[in-house]
Design brief:
This protein is of the alpha/beta class. It contains 15 helices and 15 strands. An eight-stranded parallel β-barrel has the order 5-6-7-8-9-10-11-12, surrounded by six helices. It has a four-stranded parallel beta sheet with strand order 2-1-3-4, with helices on one face. The protein is elongated and about 80 Å long.
Length: about 475
């Protein structure tokens, strides 16, 4: 069987690194390759029109792969070439993934955990502000908006808040033990009541909606029995919430109660209020949310209540929305939730791609234009220019060393650009992330892509010699 023959296009500076990447990769994947080095330093500057003027395709080529930055209309190239044209990755170090050396991410659309998102202290907000928050929560993945009331107070206008949200097509729950508030909220369209115990269960039959049963005495799961029996006898739909407690106040014991609840009531709907952990723990919430959703998935807890009050938990709803899909896939297929998605890998990257010392020195020797290249590896930042190479851990030291050479191409705009790029590089070194010049750092689902390739502006466009 003939091996596929692939023709790769690149610029002068990336030729060596591309060849070193393709030699083992082609043997592993099973293809032959040729490389055409086009007369340009930076492959990212190539356009389809420019490539069409310089491309040649060796006899026997099955397809051509152009650099990832060449992502526009490929018709000028296709008009000159009779074989398929594909766009590769922007970073040649990602070619192994491009050729399937890592598993293809599975479909992660399915989930069965409902997210209730609480807006705290609603009576202190305007209806307009409440609706604004509720809409953003829904956009982040919330299925139900929970109206959080104020213990010890009675909000006689709570029905107006509920009605405003319902009129916008939002599903609403009411978070209160106050019978007066609950009655007003359910009359206005709230479909779920958080929460019911011996203090207010006598009124539950009048509300005409589902309720969440909680213990009278939180550490004692048996204190749920009477309320569950009371509600079941009156055919009031219910969920059970054994109440998750913060670390230091009975967290492990409360997890045990959820396990016991599933054993005691195998068919019951169970809810977990995860905000008690994310809001009351000095740690970024993403990992906590993921772990708790994993516990819920395994136990068949089909709804969670979360909040976004403390700053480190400000994106909990979106995190839960991602996590519920990952844990659903993992539990359903009996696999660890690894190599499924990197959306929640926020602080550090899952793997690091770095140029080695030889590649950096070789690249430095090839630069002939007036631009600077910024790379990072082994905890250092490398600033490369024509006949210049500076390496160090501190961007200020690098810039001082560059300024000491009195470069003629370092105006204020270029200096600002280099400072911006080296700031990203030191952030990547500090956290263990990949840095690629002119590309956003990868913050998982929080990534905001840089809109412009700043280095590639006309002001600093390299000579095409």
């Amino acid at each position: 069987m003939n091996r596929e023959q692939i023709h790769f296009l690149t610029g002068r500076l990336a030729e060596s690194a591309l060849r070193q990447t393709l030699q083992p990769l082609s043997a592993e994947v099973g293809f032959e390759f040729t490389i055409q080095v086009l007369p340009i330093s930076v492959a990212a500057l190539m356009t389809p029109e420019w490539i069409a003027k310089h491309i040649y395709v060796p006899l026997g080529t099955d397809r051509v792969i152009v650099p990832g930055y060449c992502d526009g209309d490929l018709s000028p190239i296709k008009a000159r070439v009779s074989v398929p044209i594909d766009v590769g990755p922007r970073d040649l170090r990602q070619l192994p993934q491009y050729f399937g050396r890592h598993p293809t991410p599975p479909s992660l659309e399915a989930y069965d955990i409902e997210i209730l998102a609480e807006i705290n202290h609603v009576p202190r907000l305007s209806i307009a502000r409440t609706l604004e928050i509720a809409t953003s929560y829904a956009q982040s993945g919330a299925d139900v908006i929970d109206i959080g009331c104020i213990p010890g107070e009675t909000c006689r206008t709570v029905g107006d808040y509920v009605m405003a949200l319902v009129d916008e097509g939002l599903r609403v729950s009411i978070d209160s033990l106050n019978v007066d508030e609950i009655q007003r909220a359910t009359a206005a369209g709230a479909e779920l009541v958080l929460s019911v115990n011996s203090s207010n269960r006598e009124a539950a039959a009048d509300w005409g909606c589902e309720v969440v049963a909680i213990p009278d005495n939180i550490p004692d799961i048996k204190s749920l029995d009477a309320t569950i029996e009371f509600l079941a006898n009156r055919k009031i739909p219910l969920r059970i919430d054994p109440v998750l407690e913060p670390i230091g106040l009975g967290f492990a014991a409360s997890l045990s109660r959820y396990i016991q609840s599933r054993a005691r009531w195998p068919e019951a709907e169970i809810m977990m209020g995860i905000g008690n952990l994310t809001e009351l723990t000095d740690v970024d919430a993403a990992g906590v949310n993921f772990l708790l959703l994993g516990i819920c998935q395994e136990l068949g807890v089909r709804s969670v209540l979360t909040t976004q009050v403390i700053n480190w938990a400000r994106t909990s709803i979106a995190e839960c929305s991602i996590a519920r899909r990952l844990v659903h896939f993992a539990v359903r297929h009996g696999v660890p939730p690894k190599n499924l998605s990197e959306e929640l890998v926020v602080l550090r990257d899952s793997r690091i791609y770095e140029f080695n010392t030889d590649q950096i020195f070789e690249l430095a020797g090839k630069i002939r234009d007036n631009n600077y290249r910024v790379l990072n590896s082994d905890g250092l930042i490398h600033l490369l220019g024509s006949e210049k190479k500076f390496s160090g851990a501190d961007p200020f030291d690098l810039f001082d060393a560059l300024a000491a050479t009195e470069p003629k191409n370092l105006d204020a705009a270029h200096a600002f650009y280099l400072g911006y790029e080296m700031c990203k590089a030191i952030t990547a070194n500090t956290l263990g992330k990949n840095y690629v010049q002119d590309e956003s750092l990868d913050w998982g689902y929080l990534t905001v892509n840089e809109k412009n390739r700043h280095r590639l502006s006309r002001r600093f466009r390299p000579r095409k010699d």
